[in-house]
Amino acid sequence: MARLIQIGDPADPRLADYRDLRDVELRKHLESNDGLFIAEGEKVVRRAVEAGFAPRSFLMAPRWLEGLEDVLASSDAPCYVVDEAMAEEVTGFHVHRGALASLHRTPLPTVAQVLAEARTVVVLEDVVDHTNVGAIFRSAAALDVDGILLSPRCADPLYRRSIKVAMGAVFTVPYARVDSWYDAVAALSGAGFTTVALTLGDDSVDIEDAVAGQDRIALLMGTEGHGLSERWSSEAEVRAVIPMAEGIDSLNVAAATAVACYVARRR
């Protein structure tokens, strides 16, 4: 059973995991060094714990305790109980989703482990917006994608914003970071995947045609704004587009990934 600990001082060092949650650079440093991540909201906290992530602590106002009573009963981690004004002062925003939890990160699987039994994977090249990463994970979970690979510069799926947008899907879709951006596409081809680059180009084909009849496919999605790099685009076995109305040539990367995943699922 989690220990309920009343805290009245926002400077209490026991609240360090929750401090300044909107400061992205500070949080990157803290969460990486300490091996933690923050889950926000009753559903997301529950999904994180159910996925096997061990809580370091919880942070809640008194009225939030009942909703996670069973989760608290299953943990030995401390639960810091504060009033809502203090929760906002510590975190830097109004905590309106009911609860926060700090949880231990676990080692990521290897690329080979993610690919081992996969038929459909999404591969993100330098997608740096946490909202987009979270939305992509949510679509991937909903549309039966087997795994996601991230280039070295992609945003962290376990950053609070990513988790929140994904509604916890980051806990259920296996993912790994590729060791080398330079030869990532060739390595996927060598592993038996047809690499399909979502990109505008004279030789790009309809995404339906690109995936039709393919057994194992890797959907390559590029960074916000510029899309895929020339190297990844040129090394892909197939280049594909999502047909659109006249005057519109592209979608946000999260929306495009959702469409591509849906088409891939239909194959």
How does the SSE layout of this entry go?
Elements: E1 3-6, H1 24-34, E2 36-40, H2 42-50, E3 55-60, H3 69-73, E4 78-81, H4 84-91, E5 100-104, H5 111-115, E6 120-124, H6 130-142, E7 147-150, H7 160-166, E8 175-177, H8 184-190, E9 194-198, E10 205-206, H9 207-211, E11 217-221, H10 230-235, E12 238-241, H11 253-266
Parallel strand pairs: 1-4, 3-4, 6-7, 6-11, 7-8, 9-11, 9-12, 10-12
Antiparallel strand pairs: 2-5, 3-5
Question: In words, what does this structure look like?
Answer:
- The chain has 11 helices and 12 strands.
- The chain has a 7-stranded parallel beta sheet with strand order 8-7-6-11-9-12-10.
- The protein has helices at residues 24-34, 42-50, 69-73, 84-91, 111-115, 130-142, 160-166, 184-190, 207-211, 230-235, 253-266; strands spanning 3-6, 36-40, 55-60, 78-81, 100-104, 120-124, 147-150, 175-177, 194-198, 205-206, 217-221, 238-241.
- The chain is 34% helix and 19% strand.
- It is α/β, with parallel strands linked by helices.
- The protein has 2 domains: 3-104, Ribosomal protein L30/S12 (60s Ribosomal Protein L30, Chain: A); 111-266, SPOUT methyltransferase, trefoil knot domain (Alpha/beta knot, 3-Layer(aba) Sandwich), CATH 3.40.1280.
- The longest helix is centred in the last third of the chain and has 14 residues, at 253-266.
